[in-house]
């Protein structure tokens, strides 16, 4: 480790050097001068958060949402196949350009994972995109935490509003429970044994996915259900998600998409 260089920067450099993929931001150079470290990345015009905020239409074209989701899953699948959990996926960390590419960025919190799974700190992932197993104090988590974040981002792209915009850990949990139902041993074996699970949690019923993302088709809703499964071991993998029927009729680069991108990625 270089003297005076934060461990997060060292971690990001070492991971990015080995993660070369079209949907992962490219590290072009590392400059170390006068006790400062500069990382030079490829330039992308905008991040997904700014793009969604600046888009004048109420909704993103669903074909563009599908295209972006497919690319994100490709990037995440590549990370996971190289034994890397990103741990901080959110719209602000997803960079886009007017050519229609979307790339994972900000690997400062990422972790290489081994077998068996290590004990990790649970103070990771911006609250709104944080998986329920982390919120409930689970220290042995896996690639499934990234999949949960992708599910939240997918819903947000469709509706243009955050799915679970909590302002504290307990508020975050209860927002999830109010939407997906309070988890039980039947829906999530082992949940009652997690450190921060409480037997007196309010009991909410699950809402229909059609109510949550009304303009998404049935295949899209089915994929979202699988991305947001409570049980991490049953949550769909990035690789399996790429083969979901939702993507069978993907038509990237439609005129609608190109127009939207050209308008906002300048």
Automatic annotation (TrEMBL):
The protein's name: cyclin-dependent kinase
Keyword Nucleotide-binding: yes
EC supergroup of this enzyme: transferase
UniProt GO molecular function: ATP binding; cyclin binding; cyclin-dependent protein serine/threonine kinase activity
UniProt key word Nucleotidyltransferase: no
Gene Ontology cellular component annotations, sorted alphabetically: cyclin-dependent protein kinase holoenzyme complex; cytoplasm; nucleus
Alphabetized UniProt keyword annotations: ATP-binding, Cell cycle, Cell division, Kinase, Mitosis, Nucleotide-binding, Serine/threonine-protein kinase, Transferase
Listed Pfam families: Pkinase (PF00069)
Family: Belongs to the protein kinase superfamily. CMGC Ser/Thr protein kinase family. CDC2/CDKX subfamily.
SMART domains noted in UniProt: S_TKc
UniProt xrefs under Gene3D superfamilies: Phosphorylase Kinase, domain 1, Transferase(Phosphotransferase) domain 1
Catalysed conversion reaction: L-seryl-[protein] + ATP = O-phospho-L-seryl-[protein] + ADP + H(+); L-threonyl-[protein] + ATP = O-phospho-L-threonyl-[protein] + ADP + H(+)
Any one GO biological process: regulation of gene expression
Domain Protein kinase: 1-247
Superkingdom, natural source: Eukaryota
EC number in record: 2.7.11.22
């Amino acid at each position: 480790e270089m003297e005076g260089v934060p461990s997060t920067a060292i971690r990001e450099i070492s991971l990015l050097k080995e993660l070369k993929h079209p949907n992962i931001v490219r590290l072009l150079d590392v400059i170390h001068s006068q006790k400062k470290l500069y990382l030079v990345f490829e330039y992308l015009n905008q991040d997904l958060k700014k793009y969604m905020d600046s888009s004048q239409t109420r909704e993103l074209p669903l074909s563009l949402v599908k295209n972006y989701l497919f690319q994100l899953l490709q990037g995440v699948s590549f990370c996971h196949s190289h034994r890397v959990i990103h741990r901080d996926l959110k719209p602000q960390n997803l960079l886009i350009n007017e050519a229609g590419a979307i790339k994972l960025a900000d690997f400062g919190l990422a972790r290489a994972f081994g077998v068996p799974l290590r004990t990790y700190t649970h103070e990771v992932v911006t609250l709104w995109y944080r998986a329920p197993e982390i919120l409930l104090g689970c220290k042995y988590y896996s690639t499934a935490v990234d999949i949960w974040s992708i599910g939240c981002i997918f819903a947000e792209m469709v509706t243009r509003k955050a799915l679970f915009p909590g302002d504290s850990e307990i508020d975050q949990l209860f927002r999830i429970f109010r939407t997906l139902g309070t988890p039980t041993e039947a829906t999530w074996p082992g949940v009652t044994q997690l450190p921060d699970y409480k037997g007196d949690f309010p009991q909410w019923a699950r809402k229909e996915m059609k109510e949550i993302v009304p303009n998404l088709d049935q295949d899209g809703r089915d994929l979202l259900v699988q991305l947001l499964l409570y049980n991490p071991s049953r949550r769909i993998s990035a690789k399996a998600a790429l083969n979901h029927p939702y993507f069978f009729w993907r038509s990237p680069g439609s005129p609608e998409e190109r127009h939207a991108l050209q308008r906002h990625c300048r």
